[in-house]
Specification:
The structure holds two protein chains of two kinds. Chain A has a domain at 5-90 and 172-276: 3-Layer(aba) Sandwich (Rossmann fold), CATH 3.40.50. Chain A has ten helices and eleven strands. Chain A has helices spanning 46-53, 80-86, 98-101, 108-120, 124-137, 143-147, 156-168, 186-203, 214-220, 247-254, and strands at residues 5-16, 19-31, 35-39, 62-64, 67-70, 73-74, 91-94, 174-178, 206-211, 223-228, 231-237. In chain A, the strands form two sheets. A six-stranded mixed sheet of chain A has the order 7-8-9-3-10-11, with helices on both faces. In chain A, strands 1, 2, 4, 5 and 6 form a five-stranded antiparallel sheet that branches. Chain B has a single domain, classed as 3-Layer(aba) Sandwich (Rossmann fold), CATH 3.40.50. Chain B has nine helices and ten strands. In chain B, helix 3 packs across helix 4 (115-125) and helix 5 (142-155) packs parallel to helix 6 (172-189). Chain B is globular and about 55 Å long. Classes of the chains: A alpha/beta, B alpha/beta.
């Protein structure tokens, strides 16, 4: 089966006063109908890779790739007008904090309707039904009330569910979720993940789940890419994460305190220069 | 070292008054490390801020090292005894003050002698070294900034450190370094810690005992062994522990 998204040798460069800063340095992967986790620390390039796929890297940043194909069609450096048609309808993104991604002066319902109508050309009445249906799908108990609410009137967890409802309304093939639950409390986090899990599974979507939380990704995703300094240093099935072979992945796992495994002292990660350049472990 | 009794903290006036903390009581003996955990809005940071004198709308009794505290005013002895480290190392350091100035100002305010020598020692102690002495915050990473914030807190040679989510803005590998540093300092100086965190694993690693908070109230106090065994007594604490062990895919 051909992948939903195929990326080869993706690079993102930013010119700076002290030369070129390479934020993403040759990332490649295929995404099928699966939950793909992308893990790394701040500055590893995981967010920038996601933004590059959506065509959201602003100049002077430069995106290059050998291949970046959505359903077999190249989407590399498309003109903004064409990219805008893809974004939302075929690939969507949910970001970390709903406070900054929802329009504060527009009711929740109107925002969901606007996005949906833009991509489908449906009537107002159909869009309203769709918005209410989506709010129900993300388990908002009183969708009519939330439909008429402004973003400041809802909690963080509800805001994030609204974002998911909005992004999934036009039925995209791929959802890129960038730290979608990092701003949420644990109990709310698990609820949002359950909703995301169910919707992505039921619609046969491809999900790229960007996160700094290794354990969460191991539990939530099917497959994991571990990024370091703009490269993928290791790729493995999520359930095998704890058997990771790359010293960086092992170091990250060991530096986490765990409830079930008390230690006297936490292991400290010793970064090695070689990690920046070595080819990925198990690379084909 | 620290006794908190029937602490109420509120913001605003009726009818909009918010009761952020309601009748919280706990005691932390000298040398112990005590954790306050709970979800956002549960009042855990508010308790720390009331102790530190950053909030004046509270009632109840707070006693630190035998000294009873009132309102917002804090004596010189208080600041010599108690210091605080905040969550966001980007916001808690003055952007135009060098590390040297941050530390020397604090030392002079505390009436310390041999300022120069003390700065050298403080920087060594938090693992930064002399190379960082004349740097500005924007020239430091998040972890290095938090080390400066810890050095500043230690400058007064306090006996009680209030730690408000000291590592939640940091990457996990940096978090490990800072938590190790805090452990070392406590062992060396016999300090008492009160640490606020939403991360139960961090609290289990750092603390001897903890209080679980919900909606402004302490629901349960337990020791770390009980937390690790997930043997909490209240339903809420059990649910919180279960949720924080991660996501389970519905069958």
């Amino acid at each position: 089966m051909s992948p939903l998204l195929s990326v080869r040798n993706l690079r993102v460069d930013f010119p700076t006063r002290s030369g070129m800063f390479e934020a993403v340095r040759g990332v490649g992967f295929d995404l099928g109908r699966e939950r793909l986790g992308v893990v790394g620390e701040s500055g590893s390039g995981k967010t920038m890779a996601g933004r590059a796929i959506l065509g959201l890297v602003r100049p002077p940043g430069k995106v290059t790739a050998e291949r970046m194909e959505l359903g077999g069609e190249s989407i590399l450096n498309l003109p903004e007008s064409r990219m805008r048609r893809l974004r939302g309808s075929r690939i969507s993104m949910v970001m970390q904090d709903p406070k900054f991604s929802l329009n504060p002066v527009m009711t929740v319902g109107r925002q969901i309707m606007e996005g949906y109508r833009l991509h489908t050309g449906e009537s107002r009445a159909a869009a309203r039904d769709k918005a209410l249906e989506m709010l129900r799908a993300v388990q908002i108990r009183d969708p009519e009330r939330v439909f008429d609410a402004y973003p400041h009137e809802v909690s963080g967890g509800m805001g994030q569910r609204i974002m998911i409802a909005m992004m999934l309304a036009p039925d995209p093939e791929i959802l890129i979720a960038d730290e979608p639950t990092s701003a949420l409390d644990v109990s709310v986090r698990n609820e949002v993940l359950r909703i995301l899990d169910r919707l992505v599974g039921a619609r046969g979507m491809g999900l790229i789940f960007i996160s700094h939380d290794l354990n969460l990704v191991a539990q939530f995703c099917d497959r994991v890419l571990i990024m370091y300094a703009g490269r993928v240093v290791e790729e493995l099935p999520a359930r095998d994460l704890h058997a990771a072979r790359h010293p960086y992945t092992q170091g990250l796992l060991n530096s986490l305190p765990r409830l079930d495994r008390p230690v006297e002292r936490l292991a400290v990660l010793r970064r090695q220069q070689g990690w920046r350049d070595a080819p990925p472990e198990g690379a084909a | 070292m620290l006794t908190v009794e029937d602490l109420d903290v509120w913001f605003g006036h009726p009818p909009e008054r918010v009761d952020a903390v309601q009748s919280a009581s706990f005691t932390v003996p000298q040398g112990e490390s005590f954790g306050l955990v709970g979800e956002s809005g549960s009042g855990k940071s508010t308790i720390l801020r009331a102790i530190a004198g950053l909030i004046d709308t509270w009632s109840g009794r707070i006693e630190v090292a035998g000294e009873t505290i009132a309102g917002r005013h804090r004596t010189r002895t208080f600041h010599k005894t108690v210091q605080m480290v905040f969550q966001d190392p980007y916001a808690s350091l003055h952007p135009r003050h060098s590390v040297d100035r941050v530390l020397s100002e604090t030392l002079r305010l505390q009436g310390m002698d041999r300022v120069d020598q003390r700065i050298t020692r403080l920087l060594d102690q938090v693992g930064l070294g002399q190379g960082f002495r004349f740097r500005y915050p924007h020239q430091l990473s998040g972890g290095q900034r938090q080390r400066v914030a810890i050095a500043r807190a230690l400058a007064a040679e306090p006996r009680l450190l209030l730690l408000d989510e000291p590592t939640s803005a940091l990457d996990v590998s940096v978090q490990a370094e800072i938590l190790n540093l805090l452990c070392d300092i406590r062992a060396e100086r016999g300090l008492t810690y009160v640490m606020v965190s939403h991360d139960l694993a961090v609290v289990a690693h750092m603390c001897d005992r903890l209080a679980v908070m919900r909606a402004g109230r302490i629901v349960e106090q337990m020791d770390t062994a009980r937390l690790r065994a997930a043997a909490a007594q209240s339903d809420y604490a059990r649910a919180l522990i279960a949720a924080s062990t991660g996501y389970r895919r519905p069958a």
